[in-house]
Write a structure and sequence with these properties.
Largest sheet: 8 strands, mixed
Domain Pyrroline-5-carboxylate reductase dimerisation: 163-268
Number of domains: 2
CATH class of the largest domain: Alpha Beta
Shape: elongated
Bound molecules: NADPH dihydro-nicotinamide-adenine-dinucleotide phosphate, (2S)-3,4-dihydro-2H-pyrrole-2-carboxylic acid
CATH topology of the largest domain: Rossmann fold
InterPro entries: 6-PGluconate_DH-like_C_sf, NAD(P)-bd_dom_sf, P5C_Rdtase_cat_N, P5CR_dimer, Pyrroline-COOH_reductase
Helix content: 40-55%
Number of helices: 12
Strand order of the largest sheet: 3-2-1-4-5-6-7-8
Strand content: 5-15%
Domain Pyrroline-5-carboxylate reductase catalytic N-terminal: 5-99
Distance between the termini: 35 Å
Order of helices and strands: EHEHEHEHEHEEHEHHHHHH
CATH superfamily of the largest domain: NAD(P)-binding Rossmann-like Domain
Family: Belongs to the pyrroline-5-carboxylate reductase family.
Number of strands: 8
Main location: cytoplasm
CATH architecture of the largest domain: 3-Layer(aba) Sandwich
Radius of gyration: 21 Å
Structural class: alpha/beta
Length: 272
Amino acid sequence: MTQAKVCFIGAGNMTRSIISGLVKHGYPSALIHATNPSQGKLDALKQDFAIEVSHDNAAAAQAADVIVLSVKPQLMEAVCDALSHLDLANKLIITIAAGIPAARYSQYLKQPIKLIRTMPNTPTQIGYGMTGIYAGDDISAEQKAICETLMQSGGKVVWVDSEDGLNQVIALSGSSPAYFFLFIESMIASGVNMGMAEDKARLLAEQAALGAAQMVIQNQQLSVAQLRQNVMSKGGTTARAVETFQQGDLGGLVDKAMRNCVDRAEEMAKTF
Ligand SMILES: NC(=O)C1=CN([C@@H]2O[C@H](COP(=O)(O)OP(=O)(O)OC[C@H]3O[C@@H](n4cnc5c(N)ncnc54)[C@H](OP(=O)(O)O)[C@@H]3O)[C@@H](O)[C@H]2O)C=CC1
Ligand SMILES: O=C(O)[C@@H]1CCC=N1
């Protein structure tokens, strides 16, 4: 495994998720550095993972082989501008930001760069992450391997052939943990409305969600529709609930939500 010196610019939710996966997989803490303006997140990362931390983006980036840009898209231009005086010729830059096209970064950093775009998700924090990765033709096999090693430590990776594919990755896995959380939240609320204690409603809903996901994963020979049919006894309770979702056009609503997610990524590509 290639072990590069990695610096995360921005120490928020996703940086924490990725570092957690890296350290759990034995990536040396001494090779990981995170920067952030506020102190609290840095203290927590240092305490939990024994990594290097600082407020100085430029010094940390200068010392790194791999720079992971992990700030909100609206801050990316300013953050890159403040790194643009560095010589980045021998560094690999990885971005996890939604929306911003790969070509935009060399403008922000004011020099030619080697950049890989990725789209991880928060379950990376517990080893169940899913990351989509896009690299242009200028990226070497070794650079791709470094990126894959970093992102794979938190879960699975999938390479996409075109940059547009990353927007579909956002809709399918980057943003989608929130869809499932919303569904589970709604189930718990309904259970509570019907009189169930909240802790029991949560246990019932979360274990059903875990079991359903594992059923999909462990039964690749079956379609997801077949797994659903297997729960639906004719004239039974599940059929009544599923009919209710279908009458409300759940499939159409999911499609609309995912297309809106992609539209927002495309809007962001024009904005930032
Ligand atoms: N959350 C998610 O599920 C996913 C997010 N992403 C992408 O990841 C990126 C980060 O998102 P997320 O981790 O959720 O966001 P967070 O807001 O949790 O983290 C961003 C961090 O950047 C820090 N920051 C702000 N300004 C600077 C600066 N000048 N230099 C260094 N750090 C700075 C913030 O510090 P402070 O709080 O102190 O201001 C904050 O800790 C985004 O671009 C997003 O599109 C990608 C996939 C999934
Ligand atoms: O909501 C967002 O913009 C980011 C990208 C994917 C998940 N969170």
